[in-house]
Known about the structure:
mainly alpha, 3-stranded antiparallel β-sheet, two-stranded antiparallel sheet, globular, binds alpha-D-glucopyranose
Amino acid sequence: MNEKVEKALELLQASVMRYRGQPVGTVAAMDPNGAVAENYHDCFVRDFIPSALVFLAYGEFDIVRNFLKVVPDLRKQHNAMLGHEVEPAVLPASFRVLTEAGGDERIQADFGDQAIGRVAPVDAMMWWAILLGTYVRVSGDRSIAELPQVQQTLRGVLELSLKEGYEVFPTLLVPDGSFMIDRRMAVYGHPLEIQALFYGMLHTAVDLLDCVEDCSSLVELATQRMHMLRSYVRMFYWLDPQRLNEIHRYKTEEFGTGSVNMLNIYPESIPSWVVDWLPRKAGYLVGNLGPGRMDFRYFALGNLLAALFGITTSAQTRSLMRLYAQRWDDLVGEVPAKIVYPAVTGKEWSLVTGSDPKNVAWSYHNGGNWPVLLWPLVAVALKAGSDEIAHRVFDQAEQALPRDQWPEYYDGRRGNLLGRRAHLNQIWSVAAWLFAHRLLEDGVGLDFFAFRD
Ligand code: GLC
């Protein structure tokens, strides 16, 4: 094993969080200068995913199994907080282990009630379900999915996300900052990342829900929604030069069932950057879609997960890889990969972010570069047969990350500056690189997200 991998694995092992002697998760960061943000000692559900992938890829199943069992138990705490009688389905953003006066330990969860900005972690329940599916597939141990608490949670997650609301689309409506971008960034409504996760969760739930107590109508509903969601995202979120031309010539104010411009998108809302930026043979899924609103920004994680989970067609996935190849400086830069392109600036920055100084242009969630994006980028590149891209991004990350002590993010248009407030030894940066290494060098992990059609 090479030395870099060995050191990175040591760091990952050192980040393991234990509860009553058992490994249950990994902390967000182990900054040698002391964690800057207090909750970086927590295990975040979304941050644990790349760690879990590494553990699964090395056959260390226990920690993943424990995590999958511990998280549903925490729902009770939300219950107590809201005074509900029924156990709610939402899962926490993060949790920590506290030692009581008598030496006993207890886990304390944060459902967004303590997080900066009090944001709702909608992605946590999706990720938990998706990881459950991956665990079952990789370990061959289906018994965990049969545990009553796990079945109840799956069912609860499904019921909550399929509950009738004010929806007129198959996509899921969420508030701002409800996923990896957990700050105000105008990502409310129907952000792509949530739709990709929603699709992955539906797939897993349909597969693993045991209808001992009758739940066949729920499964039917989920299956229907899953198919509708995929067609809708494929069709309406997809943007390539041909589609851009159609939107450019859209008729507006159409009424009734036969309208082509169903969402009444005004051609005037097409930003000038996209017209010059989109290469002839490339395409991507737009960041958000709603009435009269198409957010043309490129959001990396949503696009990569959509490709990984099979929402995009294989032709679309190949177009996405051509976008990376032809817009390398913008989407990869010096350290992979850009979280969103382009950044919002000036007056728009102040309106979109609420004048958030951490999210100034080309920093953090507003156009920063995040090493954690390496794993889905390598996975999708390999899936699309773009091995060259996979190797190139990996090599760039290998140059930078150990040298810079695994930062959380980088700043600058080309991601050439260490993030101003980035934590070092950010565990999902370490894990993303380790999993990418396993994918590339050993071909392990390529089938982790192979959903059945
Ligand atoms: C920041 C990120 C969030 C991540 C957390 C812990 O809040 O925005 O996505 O889960 O840090 O790393």
